[in-house]
Amino acid sequence: xxxxxxxxxxxxxxxxxxxxxxxxxxxxxxxxxxxxxxxxxxxxxxxxxxxxxxxxxxxxxxxxxxxxxxxxxxxxxxxxxxxxxxxxxxxxxxxxxxxxxxxxxxxxxxxxxxxxxxxxxxxxxxxxxxxxxxxxxxxxxxxxxxxxxxxxxxxxxxxxxxxxxxxxxxxxxxxxxxxxxxxxxxxxxxxxxxxxxxxxxxxxxxxxxxxxxxxxxxxxxxxxxxxxxxxxxxxxxxxxxxxxxxxxxxxxxxxxxxxxxxxxxxxxxxxxxxxxxxxxxxxxxxxxxxxxxxxxxxxxxxx
Length: 303
Ligand code: MTE
What we know:
Bound molecules: ligand MTE
Order of helices and strands: HHHHHEEHEEHEEHEEEEHEEH
């Protein structure tokens, strides 16, 4: 039997009463409905934070997903239109087994882990999210990374008929991101297919999205359809849009301010009006695990 985070933590800590009852009702209903999405279970991980996660409501109603609009509530309002089944991810470039992979091939049920991570947006708000997913390294090992590959590039689905934001030139679509290979192989880096016990909500990047907890949230690209191994540093969307404000690395760093605002503190979503701001931690609190990836690098120049 697999233990989940909810087995070791009182439900009331992370699920408000309303949510708890709704989840119970939904479980009852899904048992009767053939084809209804099953609950996901992830093995607990030593990489999880002990901090209290945000509620499901908060995590799914305050989002950045510009494909659905620039407002924080736009993704929750419009993402239902996105078709996520069937879905496949094209993996190519410098790999031994290029091809089109189903989400279940990349993140099979028996490999799922629970990773409760801090999420720090470059806009200086933060949350704690109980993701469910698999290490990106496990996927890269499956497809076989060829010697000479140095970077991993990612692309979000391009589907303007379902994503109203893509009909406007808000960004240069499709949304693109990239990691250095050692960042991609780091055990903290995951491809997430769910949160709490639910398949990934569409507004959070269904059916599969990247999560890199020590970097600003914009690196954690949603609704991925393409992963490419390459020997050249890929150009990411935000970096391309505004290179003086959004770098390739985008490591959370309280000592390097955004040109238009401080990065020294953050607002925890849902903390309440009088909670006050929290100090932002170097590498978002993951310095012990990741600082050595950047040994000797000038982090002011490589923001
Ligand atoms: N991925 C895509 N495709 N489009 C986006 O607009 N926004 C990014 C990131 N991934 C974004 C994206 C930003 S700025 C943040 S902070 C996180 O998603 C937010 O993730 P969440 O909505 O699940 O909290």
